[in-house]
Task: structure prediction
Amino acid sequence: MQITRSADYALRVMIHLAALPAGARPSREIIAQWTEVPSEFLSKVLQALTRARLIQSHRGATGGFALARPGDEITALDVLQAIEGPLQLNLCLSDDPLCGRRWWCAGHQLWRDAQAALAGVLQSSTIAQLARDSFRDKVYTQIEAPRWN
Result:
């Protein structure tokens, strides 16, 4: 199992946006440069994050992208689900009774516990905290460095 490149890119973008000063709205090109995400791929990621209402897109001379709400209200799970859809490690964990063995199979319990643990880690990790952890020692050359309160 591996998280897709899209989900990894989306998390990078969200962490970067959370680290910026209030009011900053970097362009797609600047975000691509800072996050090392290919520009053509980034467009799809930004669209998905906008559809999920995690970021806002602003047009015009002062346009660019910004978080739709404070970074401490957005979790890594929110970002992952915006790109990948609902977290589901195995088909037997869906609400539909696809597997008749789910009531007696020990594997079902294992998958359920693993999914709950993964969801717990992702839910407890906010974008704001990840930004503080990731960018604490970075020096910005093109904009003012974020302030950590």
Remarks:
- The CA atoms of residues 12 and 35 lie 6 Å apart.
- The helical segments are 5-19, 28-35, 39-51, 76-84, 106-124, 127-135.
